[in-house]
Amino acid sequence: MQNMEKRWFLNPVDIISGLPQSEKDFFFEQSIKKTFKKGKVIFSPGDEGNMIYYVLKGRVKIYDISLGGKEVIYWFCGQKEFFGLAEICGGEQRTVFAEAVEDTETLTIDKNSFEKLISRNPSLSFALMRILGKRIRLAHDTIKDIIICDVPSRLARLIIKLSEICGEKTENGILISKKFTHQEMADMIGATRTTVTEVMNDFKRKGLLIYESGRITVVDSNRLLSVIDTV
Questions:
Q1: What are the tens digits of pLDDT across the range 191-213?
Q2: Which residues make beta-bridge pairs with 61?
Q3: Which sign does the torsion angle of CA 103, 106, 59, 80 carry?
Q4: CA 12 to CA 81: how far, in whole Å?
Q5: Distances 117 to 28, 90, 172 between C-alpha atoms, Å
Q6: Are strands 51-57 and 82-83 parallel, antiparallel or unpaired?
Q7: Dihedral Cα 231, 137, 186, 165, nearest 10 deg
Q8: N or C: fewer beta carbons within 10 Å in the chain?
């Protein structure tokens, strides 16, 4: 693998900023500000899908629970990102969980008002299609990785994607600006926390990365990529 595609859905797409001012005003007028404490479940499978959420600050994880009781994280939504979008494409009930992983503030808009906004702005429809398309692609990639890749390869791929999307250059390497726990990373790649901890420690021993206080610094991207190439 020579290059990783920068198409993961953690990459924020602020579709509101590109709207005409009158449409921005409509969106903000029709929205209600809501706050959620860390750990608050915002919606669950079976809930009515009648609201769309736009994150002003904080972070929300979208996940499901397997039949074995294991949490499977699909993605995280951060500032200027929407969640709860799937129901505008059909279906009345939620099929996943949304939970605030830190104190979070959102704007919520009802489905009917959001559909009016879309009908008046065709470009918004295409932007939403791109967002949902990215999320579908990532779900497919995750399934494929779980089937054909071992845990070190899946974890290396995840870390590289995170460094491309929310990485900042420092004197020690590329610092991933958002914090991710071993459990969160395990839930994103279909592994156990214990296994992820073991692999992370191996990566650290080999000088591929630094992990301190929940923050990852990728020290050697090429060597980390080579972990994926060997599969």
A1: 899 999 999 999 999 999 999 88
A2: 76, 99
A3: negative
A4: 6
A5: 11, 17, 45
A6: antiparallel
A7: 90
A8: N
Residue 91 has what pLDDT? 63
Which pLDDT value is given to residue 4? 38
- Please state the three-class secondary structure of the chain as a single string: CCCCCCCCCCCCCCCCCCCCHHHHHHHHHHCEEEEECCCCEEECCCCECCEEEEEEECCEEEEEECCCCCEEEEEEECCCCEECCHHHHCCCECCCEEEECCCEEEEEEEHHHHHHHHHCCHHHHHHHHHHHHHHHHHHHHHHHHHHHCCHHHHHHHHHHHHHHHHEEEECCEEEECCCCCHHHHHHHHCCCHHHHHHHHHHHHHCCCEEEECCEEEECCHHHHHHHHHCC
Nearest Cα to 205, choosing from 213, 193, 197? Answer: 197
Residue length of the chain: 231
Could you tell me the CA-to-CA distances from 98 to 54, 65, 105 in Å, in that order?
A: 13, 12, 13
Instruction: Give the pair of three-digit tokens for residue 84.
Output: 């709860």
Successive 10-residue mean pLDDT values, the chain, 231 residues: 40 71 91 96 92 93 81 84 80 87 94 89 80 73 72 90 84 88 90 94 93 89 78 45
Question: Contact at 8 Å (CB) between 144 and 216?
Answer: no
Q: Contact 176/167 with Cβ under 8 angstroms?
A: yes
